[in-house]
Amino acid sequence: MSDEGIDSKRRNFLIGATSVVGSVGVVGVAIPFVGSWNPSARALAAGAPIKVDISKLEPGDIVGPIPAWRDKPIFVVKRTDAMLAALNDKKSRLADPDSLEEQQPTYARNDSRSLRPDVLVLVGICTHLGCSPKFKPEVIPQDFDSEWMGGFYCPCHGSKFDMAGRVYSGVPAPSNMEVPPYYYEGDSVLVIGVDKGAV
Ligand code: FES
Fold it and tell me: Ligand 1 pocket: which residues have CB below 6 Å?
């Protein structure tokens, strides 16, 4: 299966435009922050929530890493229907497929590890030694996995995570990628860093 509908140039633009930005102060140029919400760099580092407008995200897009929530980078991925349909195809390859370890708020302890199935929000840090995993959504054989089903790959020591940030068995990373607290304001504004439960 492939994600033929994904415009990889668009996706790469989003990744490239944000990943080269070194300071929180200018990242708003590339990240679709909600304009009226502009916390200082110090406030962001201290854990102030951020608001991200996800209305322009197309299926297959990723925004991130966004420097946010306690100074940790955040990934926001708009998953395609194919990505969602494949989430449980190879659960047997995952170390914690049911998210039993507390790496997410309770409202994200589900198959999609998210409030809304189509939108994945993750702390963009490998749970091994803290590298930033690469977004590898294509369901094609990879040199690191001949049966790759799409997800995130950490080249530092070879950890693999699926399209819900669930860690594969037998890799150095000990647990699933973390899901930060978040909620939605309406349909298109994501507020990251605040836990309001499943609202
Ligand atoms: S830091 Fe990701 S595999 Fe080691």
Answer: 126, 128-131, 154, 156-159, 172-173
